[in-house]
Amino acid sequence: MDLEPVRKAVASVIDQAGFLLVEVNTARAGRRRIVRVLVDRPGRITVDECADLSREISERLDSDLILEEPYILEVSSPGVGRELSTDVDWRRSVGRTLRVRMKNDEQFEAELTDYDGSCLSFPDGRIVHVNMVKNAVEVL
Predict the structure, then answer these.
(1) Are residues 126 and 67 in the same domain?
(2) Percentage of the chain surpassing pLDDT 70?
(3) How far is CA 10 from CA 72, 121, 126, 129, in A?
(4) How far is CA 35 from CA 4, 29, 40, in A?
(5) What pTM was estimated for this model as a whole?
(6) Using CA atoms in the order 103, 107, 108, 109, what is the torsion angle rounded to 10 degrees?
(7) Cα gap 121→50, rounded to integer Å
(8) For the chain, how many structural domains are there in total?
(9) Looking at residue 22, which CATH number applies to its domain?
């Protein structure tokens, strides 16, 4: 199955609603396809917002006849503990506490106060280029 039309339709709905699309993937479940959508925003997304997005995404997929087979749509947020690595991950994590491990094995835990597209800023004045991050996860 070509995921690109699904991803484009989902991204359009998410963008119009003002959220950040983290990930879209599909999997087989018997005769149905499961479409999993991870969405977030700085400050967190609520369960009600996920439910609203689920209805909007489903309407778009159905009206545009994107999927020609029965499907189950799951819309949720990525949650704490998921590894951060993409531009969307950094943008949605502003204001949240991260555990960061640098490529030089230095580790620290701090609130991400800003992301400018290439560098992460923390309250102690520390500025870290994303290329220097070995791994990072949200802890709060």
Answers:
(1) no
(2) 99
(3) 14, 31, 36, 30
(4) 12, 10, 17
(5) 0.82
(6) 90
(7) 29
(8) 2
(9) 3.30.300.70
Beta strands 127-129 and 119-121 are antiparallel
How far, rounded to the nearest angstrom, does the alpha carbon of residue 91 sit from its chain's CA centroid? 10
Residue 81 lies in a domain: no
Same domain for 71 and 46 = yes
Place of tokens 């800003």: 114
Instruction: Read off the CATH number of the domain in which 133 is found.
Output: 2.30.30.100
Q: Which domain holds residue 16?
A: 4-76
Q: Is 44 left (phi over 0), alpha (psi -120 to 50) or beta?
A: left
70-124 pLDDT, tens digit each? 999 999 999 888 899 999 999 999 999 999 999 999 999 999 999 999 999 999 9
Angle at 88 between CA 82 and CA 94, to 5 degrees: 80
